[in-house]
Structure formats: structure tokens, C-alpha cells
Amino acid sequence: DDDVSSHKLSLLKRRRDVMTSANILFYESSKQELLVERAEGQWMFDEEGNRYLDLINNVAHVGHCNPKVTAAVTAQMQKQYTNSRYLNSAVIEYSEHLLKHFPQELNTVLFCNSGSEATDLALRLSSYYNGKSEYICLKGGYHGHVQSALDVSPYKWKGGAVKQPEHVHAVDAPDAFRGKHKGNYAGEEYAKDVAEVISRREGKISAYIAESILSCAGQILLPPGYLKAVYKYCRENGVLTIADEVQVGFGRVGSKMWAFELQDVVPDIVTLGKPIANGFPMAAVVTRREIAEAYWKSGSQYFNTFGGNAVAAAAGLAVLKEIEESNLRQNALEVGEVFLRGFEDLKQKNDIIADVRGFGLFLGIELINSEGLPAMEEAYFVRNRLLEDRVIISVDGPDENILKLKPPMCITKENAEMVLEKMNAVFNKLK
Ligand code: PMP
Question: Could you give the ipTM of this predicted complex?
């Protein structure tokens, strides 16, 4: 055991010697480092071969080290992975397949390498298209680490390094559980905040950007009618709508391929990342042809060295086929149902659980203490205790009081039941 921990300590020291402390690790604050040596499906294995159930990794969408994705990547790497300015069939085949999953009007794909790049590209496309340069985003939202994305990411505006820029307007996240509007009309009420900014900044707003379920903002489900009302105000005023599906896309919500579909709307621009190629660096922007063409009309061509390379396209295609052929959306629905029902039971037994929510395999448990305040310490207690039980879960939200689950889509009902049992024991310790 000593050897194991001294090995880990030595790695941590070497890491600190060559990397910035801003590159924080999941369990750094609780001094419970996890060294991942190997991963497979919904499992990760440490240096001693101990197996951990991964409830966090939405990037390993079709399972860690999925053999079909690995085979597709390997085969393509052995064929060609040259400059994306030569004709390459893999990226065309991928685009055709991807677009089958979108409403007809969203008919054009632009490729890049990260969610942040996709956000940057979406914002620029919008400005090229309508010639405007101000944006509306949601408080608590996160859309990436490049400057333009940080500009629309209030989640990162704390700490002083990143400040709210003048060209960005942040409206309240439509939280119908703890926010200012509740009940049946919360969606329409929150949408009025967007209308207010559009009218105050008349003719200046280029786009409205939001995730289709709010992740960093605290696993918040958009109230019914919210995006419909927002998009209506936007369209009446020439404001484009951007849906960030980086965390929530690719069937995670189960009943739909994209979370924006839950709100019965069609965005002008959609950004995709994280799960798109199961961890192989890849991202994309999907939009209408006329918006994509604005790039060219702006006097510039779109060239991205790695964006749309044949290996990424092969990985992406393998992911789409795996979602379809292994019925992973159906699995997300069924396993998500087991989790939600179990969370409801836990809520009945534990006053600290104020709300449980989610769609498919995108789930949250909100903890509020007896004084009615966000229970951050307790959330970390649950997370850290679950690590001892070899279950990996995360804490999120502006108040760090939301337990968050977004596991690989191949997780099983038996896995969910095991987690619920362990959670029950951990919550009992909190009493
Ligand atoms: N949008 C959302 C909703 C995200 O969660 C993230 C990453 N956490 C990004 C964009 C940025 O993606 P990336 O880290 O790949 O640049």
C-alpha cells in the first residue's frame, strides 16, 4: 500500500513540477487522488486493478476504449490522415450520417477540434451573418476556454481574471426550482428577460447562446415553453439562436438525439463536442447553409488544420453507429428511469435532498441544508465517500451543491441499482 501511495505522491510531485497548478484534478481538494491506468466500458481501473464505476464521463459516450471506435480509428490511421484540404471521403460520409439526425433545415457541418472552438465559430458565424456583435447568454453558463467563449461564460467570470465584457448580456438561468419564477408559466416569464435585453440593445444583438439543459449552471432543466418563447423574440428581431449541445447531445437525454428537441424548437446554430468522437479530439458546428455561407461571403475561407481530419471523422462515424446499433438512447431512457425513481426514494428519506431531476442519463440531485442554504460540504462528502465505494460522481452548479451524473451510455440497470444502494448508505451517514 505504501508503495502504491508513494508512487502516486511521486507522480503528483512530478506533475506539479512540470504543469500549472491551475490544471486542477477532480479529487485534488479532498486529497484522494485516483490514478487511472486502464478503462473499459463504464469502468475505470486504478494501479492495483481496483474497478471504479464512472458516472461522470460523458466523453466516453459509447464506453471507454470502445473496441469499434478503436478499430475505426486504427484502420483510418493506417490508410491516411493528411491535410484536410484534400478531398477525403471519411468526412463526407460522416457529415451525411450526422445530418440525418438533424431537422432538414440544419444541413451544413463545419468541423473543429474542441467545444471551445465550436463556440467561437458559432459566435463568429452569427456575426458574419447578421453583422451584429453583441450576445446574450445565461448566468452560470459555460461554453469554453478560449477568449470569445469565456466572454459568454458567466461561470468563469468569478475570480477576477475573466470579466463580463460590455458586448455580452447575461440573463437569469431559467431555474424553475430555486429561481425567481416558478410554476406553469416560468418558461414564458424567464424568456421576457431575453426580450428585455433585445429591446434595450435594439438592433445590436447578434445571437442568444444557451445549453439545451444547463450543466455548469446546476443541472437545470429548461422549463416548458422557455426556448420556444426565447426563439420567437429572437427571430422577430434578427437575433440568431445557438444551442450548445456539447454536454447534452448525441442521445444522452434518451427520448431525443438532441436536447433542444425536448423544447420543440430548431436552433439556427448547434455546437457539438465532447462525446462526438468518444474522446478523440473533434467538434462541429451544424447550421443552415445560408449562415455557413456567410463565412465565405465575409471575405474569408474556413481552414482548420485538424478540423475534419479523416481519423476524427472515422471515430465520429463509429460513435453514431454504436449509438444506433446498440440502442443506447433506449438504454439511456431505461437506466435513467431507474436512477430517477431511486433518487425520488432517497429524497423521501433524506431532507437534505431538495430536488432530483434530469432526462435520460443527464441527472442531478440538489442538496439544500436545514437552513435552506446550498449544501456544498455535504455534496463533497457524498462525492468523496462514494469514491471510497469506487463510484465516481461529480459536484457542480454555481453553489457546488448539485450531485451530477452523466455516465457512459452503456451503463446498466444493475449498475444503477448498485449506485443507489451505496448512495443510501452514504446519505444515512449524513443524518
Ligand atoms: N460547452 C459546454 C457546455 C461545455 O461543457 C464545454 C466543456 N466543459 C465546452 C463548451 C468547451 O468544450 P472544450 O473543453 O472541448 O473546449
Answer: 0.99
